[in-house]
Amino acid sequence: MDLDTADGVAVDKAWSEEAREAALEARRAQAQGKPEPTGTRTGAATATSSGLPAGVQEYTPSDKVMRAQAAYVSANFEEQKLADEQERIVSTALGMPRTPDNKEFDLLSGHVGIELKTMVKQKNDKVTMSKSALARKTESIASRGSEFRAYTVVADKRGGATRYYVREGVGSFRLGTMTQVSLQELRNIVRRPSSYL
User: Exposure winner among 11, 101, 110, 149, fewest CB in 10 A?
Assistant: First the structure.
């Protein structure tokens, strides 16, 4: 059976779109504690006692996945505006131009690239990078030569005044593993000819 995973539910790729939706709806209802659907749906396989259509293997997420899902907070328009404004502030303070959206780095100048993460209402003291974004950044760093330096900078706006953190390299980091700095200290770090951190 060729399986595809959508919304945490493994379904057969050969199923019709209606059957896939039935499986997803059953899983969502189960996750929300609603009564499990049973019976036959139009275009769907017969549901089992678990509420999932016959042939569907129930997906059980790992503890790590469950913790990540519990901590995830999506950004709304206002938070995205705050992050964009923070990028402008850091760009001006460092004298580094901003890059267009979806580039490897938010700020890029000469031999320095900066990935800026803005924390507004995150529950954890951790910033994350997807595997695909990390791969793009790592490939870009390698293609730019040994003199190129990349930094991850966090602007933590939770609780009032903005606090800045920096760490050389790119990836998912906890604030405790980063160095807290002022904008002036950050400017000095990224302008140094060799690695400082």
Answer: 101
